[in-house]
UniProtKB/TrEMBL annotation:
NCBIfam families xrefs: TIGR00269 family protein
Binding site for ATP: 56-58, 62, 88, 166, 171
CDD domains assigned: CTU1-like
Known pathway: tRNA modification; 5-methoxycarbonylmethyl-2-thiouridine-tRNA biosynthesis
Family, as annotated: Belongs to the TtcA family. CTU1/NCS6/ATPBD3 subfamily.
This protein's name: Cytoplasmic tRNA 2-thiolation protein 1
Higher taxonomy: Eukaryota, Fungi, Fungi incertae sedis, Mucoromycota, Glomeromycotina
Keyword annotations of the record: ATP-binding, Cytoplasm, Nucleotide-binding, RNA-binding, Transferase, tRNA processing, tRNA-binding
Amino acid sequence: MVRTCVICNKERAIIKRPKTRQQACRECFYYVFETEIHNTIIDSKLFNKGDKVAIAASGGKDSTVLAYVLKLLNERYQYGIELFLLSIDEGITGYRDDSLETVKRNQQQYDLPLKIVSYSELYGWNMDQIVKEVGLKNNCTFCGVFRRQALDRGAVMLEVDHIVTGHNADDIAETVLMNIMRGDIARLSRCTEICTNGDECIRRSKPFKYTYEKEIVMYAYFKKLDYFSTECIYSPNSYRGHVRTFLKDLEGIRSIAIIDIIHSGEAFELKKGVKLPIQGVCKRCGYISSNEFCKACVLLEGLNRGLPKLGIGKTNKMLKKYGNMPEGMATIPKFMNKNSDSVSEQC
Ligand SMILES: Nc1ncnc2c1ncn2[C@@H]1O[C@H](COP(=O)(O)OP(=O)(O)OP(=O)(O)O)[C@@H](O)[C@H]1O
């Protein structure tokens, strides 16, 4: 049976929106998809006119669609922001080298400046070398911690005010579930924030907070966007992978479950008296940290001392076991910010 688009009531519907189950034509799907993201940006006051914004670009579907849509919305609604692409080269042969080729093509296609920062130049180690040391089990910890800091460092090099990432509604719902299952109250209380600012120097936000992964894939497919679709070769059997499978099952039964989980996460309130870690700065590299040394410095020290397990688990417990961090070890360059000598002075 031929169905008519429920939005324009004219064209033939060729899409069933995964988020709302609405039948829509292609043009109406594009329009509602883009407009919902625009509404999220406006409702959350993500940007100020004149902001320099780095799009964390991995070459994957999410960040590729993000670059395309942000460029389009910036022109359509005159946000007045300046966009850049910022990519981190983790040094994963057969994965990141190929996806970075996609980012380089996106740079041409979208005519945006691109900056690539590598783990090797920042930390003296790439992921291929790290996996040789630590194996497949804990390597995602190294990669995640190092990437977070690498993005901030790249943003400082680009002198931008803001980083946006392609984290989508599914990613955020997964994170809520993971934090509940781990009892990680500190992260649970902040993982649904669309924008982190105040305690961090470079604003970081997720314009796709309410955008379903399936719709991002559909949009990329129908628009024929150029993106890289292989999964990371070093992340089989990650904890997140199991949560993802669980969430996909839930979505199959009730598609709105993803948004409901995000709303539940937003509604969590901490009991009075619950102590949260206090943000300070790393004594060694100046990056934000709730401990004396940031996680990246501890992980790096573990690698350099031939003790890769040093940074896995509770830092204080591990330092007790393996001994304190010796002074004068190879370390990450001091985190410098465009307005101050170090993060501590600006935040
Ligand atoms: N190497 C990288 N360089 C720059 N940004 C990255 C990199 N890896 C991840 N990101 C950012 O973090 C977001 C979430 O990353 P994740 O690893 O969960 O990938 P994903 O969900 O497959 O997203 P994508 O489809 O964009 O790769 C990405 O959308 C991107 O904005």
